[in-house]
Amino acid sequence: MCGIVGASGVHGAARIASLGLYALQHRGQEAAGISAVDDNGVARVQKVTGQIADGIDDEVLRGLPGDTALGHTRYSTAGGGGLVNAQPIVVRYHQGDMALVHNGNITNARTLRAELVEEGAIFQGTIDSEVIVHLIARSRAGNPDEEIREALSRLEGAFSVLITIGDTMYAARDARGFRPLVLGRLNGGMVAASETCALDLVGARFHCEVPPGAVIRIRGTEVTELEPLPPAPRQAPCIFELIYFARPDSNVFGKSVDRARRAFGRQLAREHPADADCVFSVPDSSNSAALGFAEESGIPLELGLIRNHYVGRTFIHPEQIGRDFKVRVKYNPVREVIEGKRVIVVDDSLVRGTTSKGLISLIRDAGAREVHFRVASPPVTNPCFYGIDMPTKQELIGARMAVGDIARHLNVDSLGYLSLEGMHQVVSEQGPFCDACFSGDYTAPLVDLGSGLAAASTC
Ligand code: 5GP
Ligand code: MG
C-alpha cells in the first residue's frame, strides 16, 4: 500500500507535497519521494528510504523548485524495497519530462512487463508501476491526454495514479475505484491526495473525489475531466481502507472513516455481546471501533493498552527479550485497568493472529480474569491482490482454522468476528465494496496468477 499526493499551480509545490506526505505516512514507511517540475518543464526528484522526515528536509525541498509536484510514500507488498523501487518514477520521453506516483496493485503487470521486455523495453526496478510509464512512452496516440488514457486502459487491477507531463498534472483511478483519491483547492491551484487528511494539513478545501474510471487533467485551477476509462462491470472500492488502512480523520469513498469504524464496532457489539467490566482497543487502529462497541454495549471504554509510538526502526535482537518481543516492544498493558477484570478487547482485524496471541498473553499476565476478543471485521480468509499487504493463504489464521479453534489458539474466553452481512449493512449506502479478503470474490481479473507469473512488487 502507498500514499500519493500532488500539487499543481501552487507556489512551492514540493513543500506542499512533503506536508501531504506527513499526513499520509501511515500508508507506507519504507520509502518516500518527491518530484517537482520547474518553470522550464524540467522534473527533479529526491527519494529516501524510510519516512519523509528521514531525509526530505528544507535543503532537499529548496532543490525541488516549481509549481507542480508529486509525492509518494511506499509500503511494498511484495518483492524489492530500496530506492530503485521508490517513487515518483521520473523519465524523459518524447513529450518532455514525465513523473508518476501510483497506489494499488496492477494484476496484469507481469504479463505486460513480459510483453514490453520482449519488445526491447529496459526496466530499472521490479515495481509494477514502472509498466505504466513504458506504456505511456510507447503509445503512438500523439498527445499526452490520449497516451495516458490508452496506457491506463491496458491495466487490470487497482490503480490510483498522479502523473505530471511537463507542468500538467493528471489524476486517474481504475474503473472499479479500489484505492481512494481526492482533489482539493489551494491558493489558485489544486492538490490531489490519497486521503482528505492530507488536504486538511496543507489547508486545501475539498473539491471532489476522483470518480472511478476518471482521467482528470489539471492545469492550475483548470480541471478537465477527459474521456473516462472503459467501464467495469461494477465498482469495488476496498472495504479494508475503512476497516484498517485509512486514517479515522479522513473521508474515504464519501464516508467518514471514523463513522464507519464506530458503526462496525456498534454492529459487532450487537452481534457478539459479552458480560464484562470494560472494553478497550488495540491502539491505534481499532480505537474508533472500540468506541462504537462501548457506546452500543454501555460497557465503559478504558485505555487498557498503551502503544509505544517510537519503536519504528529500533533494532533489538528478539532473543534478548523473548518470544512476544515484537508485541511487547509496541504495546504495554495498564495493570490498574486490567487486574481482576473481565475485559473485552476490540481489534480491527485478525490477519496472521500473531499480534493478537502475544497481546492476549500480555493481558492475561496483567491479571485479566476473562478475556473476550472481538474483531471489527470478518475472518480474513484470502490474500489481497489489489494492494493491501496480506500474506499468503497459508499464513492467514482465518483460512487455516475455524473460529472455535482460533479462540483456543489465542487463549481467549470468547471470540467474535463481525459478520460479512453486518459489515456490508453498515456501509450499504456507499457500496458495493470489494471484500475479496473476506469472501474470495475477486472482482478484477488476476491475469498474472492465471499466466503463472508471480505478482510484481506493488504499492
Ligand atoms: P495479526 O493478526 O496479523 O497478528 O495482526 C492483526 C493486526 O494487524 C491488527 O491490529 C491490524 O490493525 C493490523 N493490520 C491489519 N492489516 C494490516 C496490514 O496490511 N499491515 C500491517 N502492518 N498491519 C495490519
Ligand atoms: Mg492494529
Descriptive account of the structure:
The protein is of the alpha+beta class and 459 residues long. The protein has 18 helices and 21 strands. The strands form five sheets. It has a seven-stranded antiparallel sheet with strand order 3-2-4-1-10-9-11, with helices on one face. Strand 14 and strand 15 form a beta hairpin. Helix 1 crosses helix 6 and helix 4 packs across helix 5. The model has no long low-confidence stretch (mean pLDDT 94). The structure holds guanosine-5'-monophosphate and magnesium ion. The site of guanosine-5'-monophosphate has 15 residues, from helix 13.
Write the SSE topology.
Layout: E1 2-8, H1 13-23, E2 31-37, E3 43-49, H2 58-62, E4 68-74, E5 89-93, E6 96-103, H3 109-118, H4 130-138, H5 144-153, E7 160-165, E8 168-173, E9 182-186, E10 189-193, H6 196-202, E11 205-209, E12 215-219, E13 222-225, H7 239-245, E14 251-252, E15 255-256, H8 257-271, E16 278-281, H9 287-297, E17 305-307, H10 318-321, H11 325-330, E18 331-333, H12 335-338, E19 342-347, H13 354-365, E20 370-375, H14 397-400, H15 403-410, E21 414-417, H16 420-426, H17 436-439, H18 447-450
Parallel strand pairs: 16-19, 19-20, 20-21
Antiparallel strand pairs: 1-4, 1-10, 2-3, 2-4, 5-6, 6-7, 7-8, 8-12, 9-10, 9-11, 12-13, 14-15, 17-18
Helix pairs in contact: 1-6, 4-5, 8-9
Bound molecules: guanosine-5'-monophosphate (5GP) and magnesium ion.
